Recover the amino acids of this structure.
């Protein structure tokens, strides 16, 4: 019994699904089209006992559709009340109750209730819908077939809404896991960078202690200050997560690992071509690592998923204080695209460094991954005030 009460309490306290968007222009276009169809139906059908009232109720009910995601319960209650009132009036006057076909679009309301609503909204909305369906069956006189048909449609809409909700939640969990793993890799990379700077500080401090030359001691302190500023800059970017990736980070500030991607072509097509600036110069270590990780992921995706690809070009450009990376393949997109979690990881890594990363079909053919990251040499980073 306690387990049942706990389950009911959990269902009642279930939060609303995240991501419900406010009404947009497309919602109002949908309402306008459906309202026009409802008016045309009211004018053309001759089996409606009260065509004006039925059309007016349908049009008014359709106007709540734009708010079905953000306020599903508030949308369901007035629609059910107004529709029930019309059915009671028709039943009291002895008119034959015939529903409008356009009103079938209102099945979006129970779907949205289970897709977006909170536990309280779902419970109360289900009771309201059950009451409205019962009233419709009693006043309509359609018999068992209509009752069963209406219940099936209602339950199917609810089930579809709940299924969509569960699928979205599952995808969010997987994307969150991908982001967490990427942050763990970033934490490892940045930790290695910070360890490099701290080691330099320790060596210089030891040299300053044993030196009898005042000038050498001052030089050691100057180097220690620079390395300390670099360390602080890296620590600001560090994501506070646990490390569980034992892999090694690429070179600190250099682009040698990026050039090594060209060696992947030795394993067979597509061939990988890396194009670097004539004088790329050193990059801030976290930026260099991000460039390599994004390029590595993009090249791997091209080799796995690009159908018929013969060439992958990795192009790096540095200008206007930014580093731009383009990875383009000449293959056709896979007919069964992946989940995109690797793309989510690349975008997350770029965002954490203040940049962007996008991927999609190229107008000229093939697929392109484009990343833009803030540039800056390690020395420039060290001049940032702590």
């Amino acid at each position: 019994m306690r387990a049942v009460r706990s389950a009911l309490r959990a269902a009642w306290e279930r939060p609303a699904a995240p991501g419900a968007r406010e009404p947009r222009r497309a919602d109002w276009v949908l309402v306008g089209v459906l309202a026009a169809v409802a008016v045309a139906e009211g004018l053309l059908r001759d089996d409606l006992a009260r065509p004006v009232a039925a059309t007016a109720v349908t049009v008014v009910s359709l106007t709540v559709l734009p708010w079905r995601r953000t306020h599903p319960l508030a949308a369901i209650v007035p629609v059910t009340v107004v529709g029930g009132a019309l059915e009671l009036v028709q039943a009291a006057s002895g008119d034959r109750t015939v529903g409008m076909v356009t009103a079938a679009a209102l099945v979006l309301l129970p779907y949205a209730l289970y897709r977006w609503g909170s536990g309280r909204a779902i419970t109360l909305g289900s009771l309201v819908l059950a009451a409205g369906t019962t009233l419709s069956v009693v006043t309509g006189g359609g018999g068992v077939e209509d009752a069963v048909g209406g219940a099936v449609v209602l339950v199917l809409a609810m089930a579809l809404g709940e299924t969509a909700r569960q699928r979205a939640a599952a995808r969010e969990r997987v994307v969150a896991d991908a982001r967490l793993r990427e942050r763990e890799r970033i934490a490892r990379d940045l930790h290695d960078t910070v360890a490099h700077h701290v080691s330099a500080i320790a060596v210089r401090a030891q040299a300053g202690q044993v030196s009898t030359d005042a000038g050498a001691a001052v030089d050691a302190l100057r180097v220690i200050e620079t390395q300390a500023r670099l360390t602080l800059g890296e620590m600001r970017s560090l994501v506070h997560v646990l490390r569980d990736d034992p892999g090694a980070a690429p070179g600190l500030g250099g682009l040698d690992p990026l050039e090594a991607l060209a060696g992947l072509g030795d394993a067979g097509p597509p061939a990988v071509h890396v194009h670097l600036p004539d004088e790329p110069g050193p990059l801030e270590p976290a930026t260099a690592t991000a460039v390599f990780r994004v390029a590595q992921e993009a090249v791997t995706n091209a080799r796995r998923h690009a159908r018929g690809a013969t060439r992958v070009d990795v192009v790096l450009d540095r200008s206007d204080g930014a580093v731009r990376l383009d990875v383009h393949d000449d293959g056709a997109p896979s007919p069964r695209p992946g989940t995109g979690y690797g793309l989510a990881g690349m975008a997350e890594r770029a965002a954490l460094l203040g940049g962007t990363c996008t991927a999609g079909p190229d107008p000229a053919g093939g697929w392109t991954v484009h990343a833009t990251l803030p540039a800056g040499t390690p020395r420039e980073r060290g001049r940032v005030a702590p």
